[in-house]
Every structure is written in structure tokens, then in C-alpha cells.
Amino acid sequence: MPPPARANAIAVLGTGSDVGKSMITSGLCRLLHRAGFRVAPFKAQNMSLNSFVTPEGGEIGRAQALQAEACGIPPHVDMNPILLKPESNSRSQVIVQGKVFATLDARAYFARTQDSDLFRAVRESYERLASQYEVVVIEGAGSAAEVNLRDRDLVNWPVVEMADAQVVLVGDIDRGGVFAQIIGTLDLIAPQERARVCGIVINKFRGDVTLFADGIRFLTERTGIPVLGVLPFLRDLALDQEDSLDVERGRQVPFSADGINIAVLLVPHMSNFTDFNALAEESDVVLHYVAVPEEAADADVILIPGTKATLADLGYLRDKGFEPLLHLHVERGRELIGICGGYQMLGRQIADPDGVEGGGAGEGFGLLHITTVLERDKITEQIEAQALHLSGTAALLVRGYLIHMGRTNRHEHRPCFELHAQAEHSERRSGAMGQDDRCLDGAVRDDGLVWGTYIHGLFDQPSFRRAWLNRLRARKGLPALDPTLSQLVNDKRRDALDRWADHVEQHLDLGLIWELVGKKGRA
Asked: N or C: more exposed end of the chain, with fewer CB within 10 A?
């Protein structure tokens, strides 16, 4: 029998972190999908606190979930076989093929990379994808020229060589020094690596692109490698990104008397900040990420986000002086919400008997009478739930996902959501209610001002988001807004992938890409 077909591979490597590799990978995936190819993304190793749960319950980087959407396929753990979730400056939780593998410091991790069980997982995942799809678009990590880590690398050149991929090198002109970025990178990599670089992309250009014509000629002549194009900076792109959090977003926009003002507390180990992206795009919302209590003093809502280090970030917020503000905020009749780790912080106590976060226990803010015990088993699953805590909205359905390592007892509080999926962590409703088979999530105070949940992605649902915002508007004496406005926000987000792909197609010469994947032969 002939060997199974193996996918053609294109690798998007960068001159550094956050130069736009994830987005260009997403754009290429979308364009290939629209051209009729069976295409999948792949990133061998990702370091991010912004993650997503696949339909099978595995955890991967958020960018690979977006790239899978661009390919028109469900996300799968093989698309991101290793995910590093930092717990401190030198230690990370290591997720391998969707499940917790270990918690390692940097030195121990790098000792286990190439020629180890970690690289075997990378190879296994890639080979499965390469046997199922026609094209795999590989995303690198950091710089393509990390010379001090080359012998321990398992995400850039070893994957390129394993996949026999051609490389597109991306430089970021917005941060300055793009000539040094590109020429320096090409000078530092090995000759056989440089030979795989088939094109250069200049990303995040602001201004008149024609003024960079001399720069394109210089790079082409100096490197002998074609510049595929210059991508202008695209504003108001409603796509969830994972590499950096724009903490300045909205800082210059004052809170509004005619809308809903939301403050999200910045914590050092903040995770899944994409939980709030859809909220920020609502026309009647001003959303700020706040670092000090004074910035949240006039907010209608304070949101405490998820975190990879609940006890440490609880202590951080307390040291910053947020605790008195939170109590005063609720006393003034304003709403306070905790998501995941933020939910745990709202309670009376968080205990860590198994040393999940280093051991010990801490007192929460005491605004919910709940208690949490951190546990080693990690809950990761997609769920569908019915809202119970918004008056008159019991039929509202939400979809989201769970990623947490704690079990919370809500004691006398009512739950916020009824989970339709049988979530392993959830408490059962009492037999006296005649509903033993239903799972519950979250807790809400009787006055409705303080509530928390483990559900990520909650505010992505337009009907729930608008019902909740309209409740806040009523509290401020403002008229309700039409729910279709929130649906328009979701439509904009849905269409953003095609908008980005159109932008990439307009500004890059993709002839070389099409040649690599055999588009002419296919036609």
C-alpha cells in the first residue's frame, strides 16, 4: 500500500514576540479554507494564560481555537499539544495534549524538551494533523533566532524541519527597528534554516505604505528573499487575541452617565481576559481595566477576573487597597461579579491543602458566604447553562467553558446557573426539590448585587449579555435597549475573521503561498 498522504506545511515565524504571528496564521488559515483546502493550525508550544476548552474537554491556547474557527473546524488538542500557563516568573503549569502534565520551573522544563516525552507529544500531534488535512499552517513562538535556546527548542525550527515546511518571517514595524529585526534574525539562524525562508511580511504599518517602497527594495536586495507585502494596522478588529492585553483600552474614555461603566480589576496572573471583549464592544458600555482603587470608584460594575494564582492575586488586590472599595461599592447598591478565581475571592475562605498554589489558606473578601478548596484535579469542559439569577430571564441559555481547580460550597446562597452538561465539579440540587439530576454553578446574594460563576465566555452570549446590561440600565433609571443591538456586536465579531482575511489578501502577494499548497495544480 502507498504511504498515507501528508499535508503541505507553511510556518509563520517571527522576529520576536507579539509581532503578529497568531493573526497572520489565522488570516492564512481563513484564506486557505475559503479556497477549498482542508487546513488546520498547529503551534507546538504556547505560553499563555488565555486558554480555551475543546469539545472533548482538552485545554489549548486561545489563538489556536481562533485559528481552528478560521479553518472551519472544531478546535482539537493536537493543534496545540503543549500549553504553558505561568504561575510565577519561573514556574508554569504544563498542559500536554489538553491535560495537566506537571508544574515545572523553567530549568526543569527545558531539561525535558527535545528527545523527550514532550517532543514525542509534539510529533504525535503533528503527524495526526498532517495525515488528516491537506495543509497545516504552523505558528512559531517568540523569535525565530533564540540562539541561547536552540538546542532545547521544540516549537520553531525542529517543527519546521519535522514538517518540511517553508517559512514566512514576520517583522513588526510598529515597534521600530524592523530592518534590524529581519536582517538580524536571518543572520543568526543557520544556513539550512535561512534556506527555508521563502518570504518576509512587514506587519502593523501605520501611515502611507508607499513611503516604505525603498524599504522593501532594501530588504529584498540585502536578503535575497522577497517581501510578500506590508500589512497596514487594522483598527477595530473584533477578534480575541491572546499574546497581550491592551490595558490602556478605554483609559482615555471617561465613564458615562448615560451608559454602563464597568471596571475589570487587573491582577498579575489574569487569565481569559477575552471574557470581557464582547462587553467592551457594546455601544452603551465603557469598560476600563483598572490597576488602582481610585480608577474603579465610579464604576457601575466591578468585575474580578479569572486568575492562575488565586491566593497570590487575592493578596495583591488586598495590598493595593481594593478590599474597602469593594465593600463600599456594594453598599452603594452597585454590582460586583467574580469569574472563576474572582468568584473564589468573593467568598469567606480559600484553602489549598494539596499545595496546588503552594499550600496554606486565605480569607476572601467575605462578600459571599462561600468557601473554596483548591484541588489538583482540573475541570475542563464546554457547557451549556440556563440562567437562574436574573429576574424574569430563567429561560436564557448561555454557552461557555470551565477551567478551574477548585471546589466551592455555596452554603445558603442560590446558584446562578443550571448546567445542562453534567459538570463533574457541580453540586447536585437537593432531593427535596425533586431535581437530583441537575448540576448547578455559581452563587448569588439575595439582593442580586454580588454573584460569581466558574463559567468563562458567559458574556459572549448576546441575549444574556443584553438582559444583564438592561437590568443595570434599569438600576440607573435608563431605558432598556433593543436586544438586536447585542446581536449586531456578535455579528461583527463573527465577520471579523473574513474582514481580516480580506485585509491579508489585499496587501500580501500570496502567489508563493498558493504555489506551495498546489492551488494551481488543483484548479
From this structure: N
Q: Do residues 372 and 500 share a domain?
A: no
pLDDT for the residue 184: 97
- For the range 508-511, what are the long-range contacts, defined as Cβ-Cβ under 8 Å and sequence gap of 24 or more? 508/201, 508/228, 508/229, 508/231, 509/226, 509/228, 509/229, 510/31, 510/228
DSSP for residue 127:
H
Is residue 451 in some structural domain? yes
d(CA 68, CA 141): 18
Q: Rounded CA gap, 88 and 311, in Å?
A: 12
Work out the angle at residue 54's Cα, subtended by the Cα atoms of residues 51 and 59, and round it to the nearest 5 degrees. 40
pTM of the full predicted structure?
A: 0.89
- For residue 4, the model assigns a pLDDT of 52
pLDDT tens digits, one per residue of 378-423: 899 999 999 988 766 557 889 999 998 889 999 999 999 999 854 4
In order of 77, 129, 277, 365, the CA distances from 302 in angstroms are 34, 42, 15, 14
Q: Which residues of the chain have pLDDT under 70?
A: 1-5, 113-115, 240-253, 391-394, 421-438, 519-523
For residues 103-126, one letter each, b for 16 or more C-beta atoms within 10 angstroms of the residue's C-beta and e for the rest, the string is: bbeeeebeebbeeeebbebbbebb
- Predicted local confidence at residue 432, as pLDDT: 29
44 and 183 both lie in a single domain? yes
Do 212 and 340 fall into the same domain?
Answer: no
Residues 77 and 125 sit within 8 Å (Cβ to Cβ): yes
* 42 within a domain of the structure (yes/no): yes
Q: Are 299 and 260 in contact (CB under 8 A)?
A: no
Q: Domain tally for the chain?
A: 2
Distance linking the first and last C-alpha atoms of the chain: 27
Do 272 and 229 lie in a common domain? no
Q: Tell me what pLDDT residue 523 has.
A: 42
Question: Grid coordinates in use for 59?
Answer: 485545554
Residue type, 274: T
Q: Are 185 and 145 in contact (CB under 8 A)?
A: yes
pLDDT in tens, 77-107: 999 999 999 988 888 999 999 999 988 888 8
Position 80 scores a pLDDT of 98
Residue numbers annotated as active site: 340, 456
Spatial separation of the C-alpha atoms in residues 261 and 343, rounded to whole Å: 20
| Residue 219, domain member (yes or no) | yes
Domain span holding position 201: 8-235+494-522
CATH code for the domain in which residue 39 is found: 3.40.50.300
Residue 484 domain flag: no
* Cα–Cα dist 481/46, whole Å: 40
Q: Say if residue 472 is in the same domain as residue 501.
A: no
What local confidence, expressed as pLDDT, does residue 118 receive? Answer: 92
